[in-house]
Amino acid sequence: MKIERLSLDKIRIFLTFDDLTERGIQKEDMWREIPKVHELFSEMMEQAYTELGFDASGPLAVEVFQLPAQGMVVIVTRGKVQSTDAVDEEEAEEVYEMEVTLEQSDVISYAFHDFEHLLKASHIAFGIGITDGALYHYKDKYILQILPSESDESRDQALIAILSEFGEATSVTTAVLDEYGKRIIAESAVKSLCEHFRQ
Q1: Which end of the chain is more exposed for a tag (fewer CB within 10 A), N or C?
Q2: 137 backbone dihedrals φ, ψ, rounded to 5°
């Protein structure tokens, strides 16, 4: 489980499928109201408080993005408390008012802080027969997006292992990248990078 602060009132939590399996949660369970999921959420909020000082009391908007074969990204945004009622402080800490949004992305999406890391990942991916993908520049990072194979899940697992070594999974959508990012290579990004930049 990896937690990072996006802003004063927003954090992002990356859960691998191993994180879920360790807690006896299937990915389908994230869509259901079950005690294990509530326990996981409480654990995430405790870790967010310990690591980042993120106080999760009051109303929360929770977005859950499922990434193919990588895990889940959970974005938690703290809302402003509207109520002026005097509430028992201990009780308030135990209650999360949550508005949950669930989205599923079919795109394998990885961010690279360093162009050299992107090149290394691309050359290794090219070595196992991967040529496709689109490359963007967004918020000082290079983002490589590749559609998963419809027929070869082991290829996708190998690709994700390579990309994870050099970059980090990201939940930014193609729509956001098209709107706010800069598209550098529209298609066959892995092949183009390997042809233009030797290792």
Answers
A1: C
A2: -115, 125
Tell me, rounded to whole angstroms, the distance of Cα 92 from its chain centroid. Answer: 29
The one-letter amino acid at 196: H
Single pTM value for the model: 0.57
In sequence order, the 6+-apart residues with CB closer than 8 A to the CB of 182 are: 136, 137, 138
- For the 108-196 domain, the top CATH level (class) is alpha beta
Helix (H) or strand (E) holding 168: strand 168-169
pLDDT tens readout for residues 16-49: 877 888 888 876 776 666 678 788 888 888 888 8
Residue written as tokens 């360790």? 22
* Cα–Cα distance for residue pair 153/66, rounded to 1 Å: 16
How many angstroms separate the Cα of 93 from the Cα of each of 33, 44, 57, 84?
20, 14, 5, 16
Chain region(s) in the chain for CATH 3.30.70.1950: 108-196
